[in-house]
Amino acid sequence: MEEDDAMRRMTDETAASEVRSLQQAAARAAASKRQAEVAGVVGQHRDLISAKVRGNTRLPDNLTGNPEVRCLVKLLPTGEVQSVRVTKSSGNTAYDEAVVRAIEKSSPFPLPADRDARAAFVPELSFVHRPK
Amino acid sequence: MLRAVLLFPLLCLALLSASFSARAAMEIQVIGGAANKIAVAMVPFQAAPGQPVPALDEIAGNDLDRSGQFRRVDVSGTPPPRAPAQVNYSIWRSKGADALVIGQVTTLPGGRYEVRFYLLDVIKQAQLAGYSYTISASQWRATAHQIADIIYEKLTGTRGAFSSRIAYVQKQGKRYELRVADADGQNPRTVMRSGESVISPRFSPDGARIAYVSFEDKKPVVYVQSLQNGSRRKVAAFKGSNSAPAWAPDGRRLAVVLTRDDASQIYLINADGSGLTRLTRGGNLDTEPVFAPDGQTIYFTSDRGGSAQIYRVAASGGDPRRVTFSGSYNVSPAISPDGRYLAYISREEGRFSVVLHELASGQTRVLTDTARDESPSFAPNGQAVLYATVQGGRGILGTASLDGKTRARLSESGVDAREPAWGP
After folding, report:
1. Are B124 and A56 in contact (CB < 8 Å)?
2. DSSP string, B69-82
3. B13/B262 Cα distance (integer angstroms)
4. Which residue range forms the structural domain that includes residue B322?
5. What is the CATH classification number for the domain harbouring B81?
6. Looking at the domain assignment, is residue B4 inside a domain?
7. Is the pLDDT of residue B1 over 50?
C-alpha cells in the first residue's frame, strides 16, 4: 500500500516535471519569437524613419566628395522631434543645415505602436547622413 | 557561499542597469536626399478693389515656377492668414510646406497701393522676410518680381534674377524690332526699329547700354545704344562684315568679329570705337566671342580643327585651345557668371540643342528637347539659360533650368522672336 503510494507520487512528480519543462520550453520559444517580432518591427521603423528623412533632404548643389554629418536627435514617445544637435559636422554648413532641416521636417517620426519596439527609439536617436 | 549567492544577483542587476543607462542611441543611416524642390505655400494676397491683374502672388508664383526650384503646396481649404500672428504652422506643416508666403494689398489715395508681404519658415516657425511697399500701378509687375527675388534668395541662398531684363529681336513681316522686356517676357518695349535685319543684341555689364548688329547700312555694322536716352554710335563699321559683339566685364571694351583683313577673325575694340587690336589669326573662321567673367579669357567658335568647335584664347592673345571635343558641331558659347559652365548649341543627329558643359569636369548635359535651338545665354544669377527655338514655324523664346528638368516658354504666341540675350 505504502509502496503503491510511493509509486504514484513518483509518477506524479515525473509528469509534473515534464509539464514544467514543456512549459519552460514554450515560454522560451515565445520569448524568442517575441524578440524576433520586436526586432522586425524596430528594423522596419528604422527604414521608415530613414526614408522619411531622405525624402525631406534637399542636398545643396555645392557638395563635393561624400562628407558625413552626425546628429543626436531627442524624441518624445509620440515621435515628435524635440531637438537636433550636430555632433559631427560635414565641414559644409549648407549640408549640415539641410540635414538638420530634413530631420525637423520629418517630425513626427513613424514610431512602432508596440511599447517594447518603441523603447528602442526613445528618448534619443543618432543619425548618420551621407550624400551618396 | 551565502555571500556569493547574494552577490551574484546584485552583480547581474548592476550590469543590467549599466547596460541600460549607457546604451548608445540607436543609429539611423540616411544616404542621399530625394527632395529636389522647396515646397512653398503661396497664399493669394488679400486684394484691394480695382488692383491691377494678374495678382502679385500670381506673377511672383509664375516666376518661382519657371525656376524649377520650387514645388507649390495646395493652399485650398484653409482660411488664408494675412499676418504672421494668424498663422497656424501645424496646418502648413501637415500640408508638407517648407515655406509660407502671405500678403495683402490695400488702396491708398492717389491711385497708389500699399503691399505687405511675409515669407515664413514653416519648419522653424520663424519669419524669414517681411516687406512693405508703397507703389503705383506702373510698378505692379516690378514689385511682384522683387517679391519673387526675395523668396528665391531666402529659400535657395542664391540671388534671384526675376527683376532682370532680356533683349530679343521681333520680326513682323519685313520689320525688325529690337525689344527689351522683363525676364518673364512681359512688359516689352521697342528700343530700335529697322527694315533690315538686326541680330546679336548684348547688354553691357551694367545694363545701361546694348550692343547689336544692324544691317541698315546694307551690311553688318556693330552699334552701341544707350537704353536711357536711345542715343547710339557705330562701334565697328569697317570694310567687310562687322558682327558678334561681346562686352568685356569692365564694360569698356568689346570683342567683335571682322572680315576687314581676312576671313572672320576676332578683334578687341574700345566701346567708343577706338583702339582696334586683332586677337586671332589664321585663314579659318573664328566667330561668336564671349568674355569669361574674369575678363582674362575669351571663348569662341572656330572651324580651325576641321569642324565647328569651341575654343578659348587669352584676352591678351596667344594660341587658342580647343574646349569641346564631343560631337562634330558645337557653336554659340555662353559662359555662366561664375565661370563654371559653358552653354552652347550642339548638333546631334540633325538636332540643334542647348548643351550645358561643366568646364572643370568636361561633363555635358542636354538641356532642351527641341531641334532648332539657338543663342543660349545665362541668367545673371547663373541658374537658367535663355534660348531661341522654333515651334510651328515661328521663333519662340524659352528658358531651361540647369538640370534641364524645367523649361518654360517666354514669348507670347503669334510673334516671331529670336536672338535673345539675358541682361542684368
Report:
1. no
2. SEEEPP-TTSPPP-
3. 95
4. 165-422
5. 3.40.50.10070
6. no
7. no
Q: Which residue of A has its CA nearest to B28?
A: A127
Place of cell 508666403: B101
DSSP string, B279-321: ---SSS-EEEEEE-TTSSEEEEEE-TTSSBEEEEEETT----E
B33 touches chain A (CB under 8 A): yes
**Chain A residue with Cα closest to B97:** A105
The runs of H, that is alpha helices, within B110-239 are 140-156
> Grid coordinates in use for B377?
545665354
Question: What is the number of domains present in chain B?
Answer: 2
* Contact status, residue B417 vs residue B388, Cβ threshold 8 Å: yes
Domains observed in chain A: 2-129 (3.30.1150.10)
pLDDT digits (tens, 9 = 90+) for B379-412: 999 999 999 999 888 999 999 999 999 999 987 7
CATH code for the domain of B336: 2.120.10.30
- Contact status of B110 with chain A (Cβ, < 8 Å): no
Confirm or reject contact between B25 and chain A (CB < 8 A). Answer: yes
Residue B39: strand pairing partners: B71
Q: How far apart are CA A68 and CA B27, in angstroms?
A: 14
ipTM for the assembly: 0.81
pLDDT score, position B386? 98
Q: Angle at CA B415, nearest 5°, toward B414 and B416?
A: 130
Tell me, yes or no, if B5 comes closer than 8 A to chain A by beta carbon: no
Query: Alpha carbon B219 to chain centroid distance?
Result: 32
Count of positions (residues) in chain B: 424
Name the amino acid, one letter, at B220. P
Paired strand residues for B400:
B385, B407
Helix or strand holding residue A36 (H, E): helix A2-55
* pLDDT surpassing 70 at residue B413: no
